[in-house]
Write a structure and sequence with these properties.
Elements: H1 18-71, E1 88-93, E2 108-116, E3 132-139, E4 142-147, E5 160-165, E6 169-177, E7 180-182, E8 184-188, E9 199-206, E10 210-217
Antiparallel strand pairs: 1-2, 1-8, 2-3, 3-4, 4-5, 6-7, 6-9, 9-10
Length: 223
């Protein structure tokens, strides 16, 4: 009877057992799962950060435009397309204004309406002055800045509109008169008014950012 004897340098060679293979596969599966989870978390965080940055930029733009508009208010009579004098030359209402310029569709309310100076007209290429009629409109959770093409006789349908923020809730607008805040204000055309409100306060709840508040001073605050 003959016996097969392996060379000394091959006696230690042997394959992996089934248990060792299964343990290795399990370890690689765990590492793969952790890697995919980390990658997914990183991508989600990047997307959320990008959305927050966009939202923050919109809020900065809204605050800048509101500050510029309120800082250059002109108490000037305004006429509608029909030639009638608009009731208010400066008006705001947290529950929404009424009137030809303030009329909107379903789910829309005008929070603030004013006339401002300082509208750019490079090279005087357009036949208009530097005055502009501006409305701040709340429409289905979107705060929209609407600028009429002309302060007098303008068609609201031709106004340029900019969405300043979206997904807002519990929007409130208040005006500082003396030492008290009020939810509505209106300066009538032809009436003698003492002064503009000293400040305007805008409150709302923004997605991801929560409760927000902006207090913007008017030109009256420096008087």
């Amino acid at each position: 009877m003959s016996v097969l004897v392996l060379p000394a340098d091959r006696q230690g060679e042997a394959g992996f057992s089934l248990t060792e293979v299964l343990v290795s596969v399990f370890i690689f599966a765990v590492i793969g799962t952790i890697s995919v989870g980390l990658m997914s978390t990183s991508l989600n965080a990047r997307e959320q950060n990008s959305d927050v940055l966009v939202q923050t930029g919109q809020i900065d733009l809204m605050r800048t435009l509101l500050r510029e508009d309120l800082g250059q208010v002109v108490l000037r009579p305004v006429r509608t397309r029909e030639g009638r004098r608009e009731t208010f030359i400066f008006a705001g209402d947290a529950d929404g204004l009424a009137g030809p310029f303030a009329a909107g569709g379903d789910g829309e309310r005008v929070l603030l309406s004013l006339t401002r100076r300082g509208r750019a007209n490079p090279g005087l290429l357009r036949p208009r002055s530097s005055l502009a009629r501006v409305d701040y409109v709340l429409r289905e959770g979107e705060l929209v800045r609407r600028v009429l093409p002309y302060p007098d006789g303008a068609n609201p349908a031709e106004a340029s509109q900019t969405v300043l923020a979206a997904g807002l809730a519990d929007v409130e607008l208040e005006f500082l008169i003396g030492a008290a805040w009020t939810r509505r204000i209106g300066y009538r055309s032809g009436a003698v008014e003492s002064a503009l409100p000293r400040a305007v306060r805008l409150r709302y709840v923004a997605p991801r950012l929560g409760d927000m508040e902006h207090v913007v001073l008017t030109s009256e605050a420096g008087g």
